[in-house]
Amino acid sequence: MSVTIEDIAKEAQVSVATVSRVINNSKAVSPELKKRVNDVIQKRNFKPNSLARGLITNQTNIIGIIVPDISNPVFGALTRGINSFCQQKGYTLMVCESGGQQEKEVELLGVLADKKVDGVLFAGVDVNSALVGEMKRQGYPIVLVTQEASEGEDIIHTVTHDNVKAVYDAVSFLIENGHQKIAFIGGPENDYSSGQKRLKGYRLALKEHNIEVPVSYIEHGNFSFDSGYDCMRKIYEENSALPTAVMACNDVMAIGAIRFLKTAKVSVPADISIMGFDDLEFGKYFSPELTTVRISYFDEGLKAIKTLFKLIHHNQQAIPKTQFVPHKIIRRISVRKI
Amino acid sequence: MSVTIEDIAKEAQVSVATVSRVINNSKAVSPELKKRVNDVIQKRNFKPNSLARGLITNQTNIIGIIVPDISNPVFGALTRGINSFCQQKGYTLMVCESGGQQEKEVELLGVLADKKVDGVLFAGVDVNSALVGEMKRQGYPIVLVTQEASEGEDIIHTVTHDNVKAVYDAVSFLIENGHQKIAFIGGPENDYSSGQKRLKGYRLALKEHNIEVPVSYIEHGNFSFDSGYDCMRKIYEENSALPTAVMACNDVMAIGAIRFLKTAKVSVPADISIMGFDDLEFGKYFSPELTTVRISYFDEGLKAIKTLFKLIHHNQQAIPKTQFVPHKIIRRISVRKI
DNA sequence: TTGTAGGCGTTATCAG
DNA sequence: CTGATAACGCCTACAA
Questions:
Q1: Which residues on neighbouring strands pair with residue A97, listed in sequence order?
Q2: Nucleotides in D strand less than 7 A from protein CB
Q3: How many domains does chain B have?
Q4: Mean pLDDT of B35-58
Q5: The domain spanning residue A134 has which CATH number?
Q6: Angstrom distance, B54 CA to C13 C1'
Q7: Where in the numbering of this chain does the HTH lacI-type domain appear (chains A, B) (predicted)?
Q8: In a shared domain, residues B44 and B127
Q9: B302 with B158, same domain?
Q10: Cα A124 off chain centre by
Q11: Which residue has the least CA–C1' distance to nucleotide D3?
Q12: B32: Cβ under 7 Å from strand C?
């Protein structure tokens, strides 16, 4: 058994209440008693039991986070951003993985409630009404990161990046560089933020420049290398008029696409330019180095946790329902001017 | 306030003890009462407060893990392996990042004690006597993952891969493929497991084949792309007799090395073969695809958490102090036979 | 098989 | 400023 507040009180010859006060700095305690208590605490290496404490204060200093897959660099960076803030605030992070499965997500929402976390950060794929309902009935504040709710975007606080605008900017960049025949390798169609929204940004940019494109220019992958490869292959095979540029909706698919082109003896960027998305670290290790749109997932995590803290501490100032972290086009080699 | 065991008891017209019994299946309860209680629990969506429970049972079903950086794919995979097991056992994971700083590591060890975790998994860099001492004085079981303690390897249970043997095998593989002039790009010299041990494996293999190598063939990086690049540059510049192969101690440095060689117009693998270490996912996306030694960090995490569970539950069977996860040479393109 | 009551380690509310 | 003492929500002897 570890040492309790009572042991300290006894040894310092004061009441437990006094000990509690010096621990929490909650009320004035005479300097001499304070010193006496602190000395004993020091000596006995006393640490208050956070369970007992949580039981009564109703807060645990634990933040929960639900991500599809922690080994995915995107969520790794996100988590690191979150953690950096938590650590400095004396909070600790409970990480849960959903595998992207909705029922698992629901379950985890409950698990975190069990653990009495003070709040949770949720990074899912499709935040639909079922999920939103589940979130509402938990007792804790929650903020979405990385994607907005498909079921009405003003229901839950969310921190993400502007997917429409980001892809719009990326495609505009391609257009500015002389490209007109621009193909698109997107995410799953049921992925609200990273799928549908990015497609929307693509369409918007084309429309604005009165560019029309055959349907065979648009393919949907699942963000994996292989799917990028396959999508590129389809585009290649189904179009006699090849595109001069491809907007791939993440770096991994972009690299898969480049790989296919390499096997097809199509040179990047000489023949076809490729634009990625995310700006993962290894994008610049490749050759050709990947031109891409950078999303700082670290910053996104940071902003999300800050928002969650405001919610937790009932910060008065109005908190916008959805906040964006800026994106940025990173010019490297895989896109060229024509 | 959420619903308590007392509310349930009242509504089901039984005592709290009975409710507790059906929750925990701890003692026989007549079927009818059981049903009545369960119905109410269901209806009221009751979840026992894990703080209160932990306070008395002295266990939280929380496992702590300390890693240098969660956004590093190696620790991401490790964590995923750990989490996969925890989830199925109803445990939850608390992730802490140390940034590789020793004082932070010590602090985190304490934080996790505060949180009353049932055990912790520790992935550090240099587990020296100070750290070991700190570990011993915490109340929880602990197992090292990824590297052994530099301060005596039989002090703390550890699950890792055999760094000496792995590099020994990799270098032997190079030798079998006709290479004799083999350079080495290693980790930091103060890194016990991933630095010193891998170097040892390299030396062992060379010695066994009576191969001597100039000191200028050996460089120490820090596992980053840039350091791989720099080390390769030094080797290139300081040796008129270039090596025909280089053993890089992780994939990222291997890729950095390849990048340098590309700028120096040295072809891989035609002129120089490169061997990596880790087998990160993106190693096979590169060209040339990386030949490397695969360590399954997922499996390593899994084995570590299983070991920790044995410790936690005082499993009788003897648990070996240090366990290895197998490694495997993955033949791809970056190494060729000469 | 069921219920009563004490206690886990803190904090918070009162008096003093 | 300090000290009893009642919660917090649950588990577990002990009794019935």
A1: A67
A2: 1-5, 7-13
A3: 3
A4: 90
A5: 3.40.50.2300
A6: 26
A7: 3-57
A8: no
A9: yes
A10: 9
A11: A15
A12: yes
Q: CA nearest B52 in A: which residue?
A: A55
B-chain residue closest to A86, CA distance:
B96
| Three-state DSSP state, A280 | coil
Report pLDDT digits (tens) over A208-219. Answer: 999 999 999 999
Task: Say if A57 falls within a structural domain.
Answer: no
Half-sphere exposure of B317 (CA within 13 A, CB side): 4
Q: Are residues B212 and B202 in the same domain?
A: yes
Q: Give the minimum alpha-carbon distance from A94 to chain B in angstroms, rounded to a whole number.
A: 4
Local mean pLDDT, 10-residue blocks, chain A (338 residues) = 85 90 83 88 90 91 96 96 96 96 94 94 90 90 93 88 98 97 95 94 97 96 96 97 97 96 96 97 91 98 97 84 97 95
pLDDT score for A316:
66
Say yes or no for a CB contact (<8 Å) between A80 and B95: no
Closest-CA residue to B274 (of B336, B230, B338) = B336
Are residues B13 and B42 located together in one domain of the fold? Answer: yes
Calpha distance B270→B275 (Å, rounded):
13
B158 token code pair: 């550890």
Closest CA to B115 of B140, B86, B136, B97: B140
Per CB-CB distance under 8 Å, the chain A contacts of B51 are: 51-52, 54-55, 60, 116
Strand duo B92-97 + A92-97: pairing: antiparallel
Interface of B with A in 108-167 (CB under 8 A): 110-111, 113-116, 139
Contacts of A265 (CB under 8 A, 6+ apart): none
